[in-house]
UniProtKB/TrEMBL annotation:
UniProt KW keywords: Signal
Organism expressing this protein natively: Nannocystis bainbridge
Feature: compositional bias, Low complexity: 35-120
Name of the featured protein: Ferritin-like domain-containing protein
Spans annotated as Disordered: 25-120
Gene3D superfamilies in the cross-refs: Ribonucleotide Reductase, subunit A
Region forming the signal peptide: 1-24
Signal in keyword set: yes
Keyword Signal in record: yes
Length: 479
């Protein structure tokens, strides 16, 4: 099955879940309780120049029956941003999708941008956070004086950033707690905060910055806009009995590759663990708004799915680490604070479910297709199927909410679809090795996110809003 056909099938499955008319021709059945149909991704060709693998150059993704082609392009630098916007004052109109991918060669640098509408506006230049300092591993952070007690998590990345000591100051203590200032030139793609510092290095005042990429897929547990996860600890009870790669498959890796893959899978496991809390809150929110029993039932079932996903991911992480791993305590204080109105619920469901879990289903399916270990590939397909059903639950929740609300809810949906997806940090392992072990390289994640937004998420949103604009008999939700 081609990449375009795979994403088309994901779109068909989601529209089927909404009870909307869809085009024929998809060879896969729609989503059901057994999870037999899943979202899929697309393969992206990487370019090797002078021995180093770079992001793909200009690539036109095959035309979609609903939306037409999407073009991704190359430019100099290290960051990639996908911005998808929609009209925030009414039904979703054809969106503006701008994709910028990076590539550098010895003698040529190409800068091109493309969009799906004529009046795309480019914002001012900004600096990638990762260009401002040096990466710090979580274990190394705890060895920095003044950072020994910081609660690190494998779900976050850490960067040491330094600034010259201000004139007239004799020590960093004089500018504490923040010697870096507001860093106004940093691109808004990264949510970050000061982790610890300041401390002095060679006459400069330095801080460690905590920022996140690994925990953005799927449904995060957001509290006041920040994704919360537990820290990984030594425990075996969160390991599923099956799902990890074969020991022989791991044995051929060197220690550095095993440690990196263990860190990546641990971050995924912590994110899946946090999703349990997110679905628990979602169930309470559905009850608060008198949602139909079918939606509450599916939300509770999804919560149990996430328990299994976390156990499977911890088992995989433990196989690479050579030691048992599990979650520590998860901070839940304040999780039920904030706006409780239906518009706030709809906006969160669109961002975390209709977008996040749709992208997760597509990414996991593509990762399964490129994975060399049969057991690991089967686990990825299993989780992808569940994420596809979770995405369908999110879309059905929005459909139900819109049937109760007015124009304000339609605006909330349109505004929530204005998303900015930050580029992941550069891969620390070769793309071919990542693919073999069920991980998509950064360039492929970027291209897949752009295509999935364009050919799945936005067409589903338009179909849903257009359908609700025409009175029709309400369909009973069944378990």
């Amino acid at each position: 099955m081609s990449a375009a056909s795979s994403l088309s099938c994901l779109r068909v499955a989601l529209l089927h879940a909404l009870g909307l008319t869809v085009a024929a021709g998809c060879p896969r059945p729609p989503l059901d309780d057994a999870g037999t149909a899943t979202g899929t991704g697309t393969t992206t060709t990487t370019t090797t120049t002078n021995g180093s693998t770079t992001a793909p150059g200009t690539t036109t993704i095959p035309g979609d029956p609903t939306t037409g082609p999407l073009t991704t392009t190359s430019t100099t630098g290290t960051s990639t941003t996908i911005v998808t916007t929609s009209d925030s004052t009414g039904p979703v109109e054809p969106a503006t999708t701008t994709t910028t991918t990076t590539s550098t060669t010895d003698d040529t640098t190409t800068t091109t941008s493309s969009s799906t509408t004529a009046d795309t506006t480019t914002g001012p230049a900004c600096v990638n956070l990762m260009d401002l300092g040096d990466e710090v591993m979580p274990a190394d952070l705890l060895e920095i004086p003044g950072c020994e007690d910081y609660d690190t998590s494998q779900c976050y990345d850490y960067m040491q950033i330094c600034a010259p000591l201000a004139d007239g100051l004799e020590s960093c203590d004089a500018c504490a707690p923040d010697c870096l200032g507001s860093l106004p030139e940093v691109c808004p793609d990264f949510g970050f905060k000061l982790a610890c510092g300041p401390f002095t290095i060679e006459g400069q005042c330095c801080h460690v910055i905590e920022y996140s990429w690994n925990c953005t897929d799927g449904r995060p547990f957001l509290v006041e806009g920040t994704a919360r996860t537990a820290a990984a600890i030594d425990r075996r009870d969160w390991h599923a009995d099956a799902g990890g790669p074969a020991p022989a498959f791991v044995a051929g890796l060197d220690a550095a590759a095993r440690a990196e893959l263990a860190a990546l899978w641990t971050a995924d496991a912590l994110a899946e663990h946090a999703s349990v809390a997110s679905f628990a809150r979602f169930s309470l929110q559905l009850l608060a708004h008198a949602a139909p029993p079918a939606l509450v039932h599916e939300a509770c079932a999804a919560q149990l799915d996430e328990v299994l996903h976390a156990r499977l991911a911890f088992a995989i992480a433990g196989a690479y680490a050579g030691a048992p791993l599990g979650p520590g305590p998860l901070a839940v204080a304040g999780a039920l604070e904030g706006p409780g109105d239906l518009a706030a619920l709809v906006a969160a469901v669109v961002r975390e479910g209709c977008v996040g879990e749709t992208l997760a289903a597509a990414e996991l399916d593509l990762a399964a297709r490129t994975c060399d270990d049969p057991a690991l590939a089967a686990t990825l397909r299993r989780i992808a199927a569940d994420e596809g059903r979770h995405a369908a639950l999110a879309w059905r929740t929005v459909q139900w909410a819109l049937s109760r609300g007015g124009p304000g809810l339609r605006r909330a949906v349109a505004e929530a679809l204005t998303v900015q997806i930050a580029a992941p940090p550069p891969d620390r392992l070769e793309p071919a090795l990542l693919r073999r072990h069920g991980r998509l390289p950064a360039a492929e994640r970027i291209a897949l996110a752009a295509q999935c937004m364009r050919s799945v998420v936005l067409p589903c949103a338009r179909a849903l809003l257009d359908d609700l604009a025409v009175p029709r008999p309400s369909a009973e939700l069944r378990v």
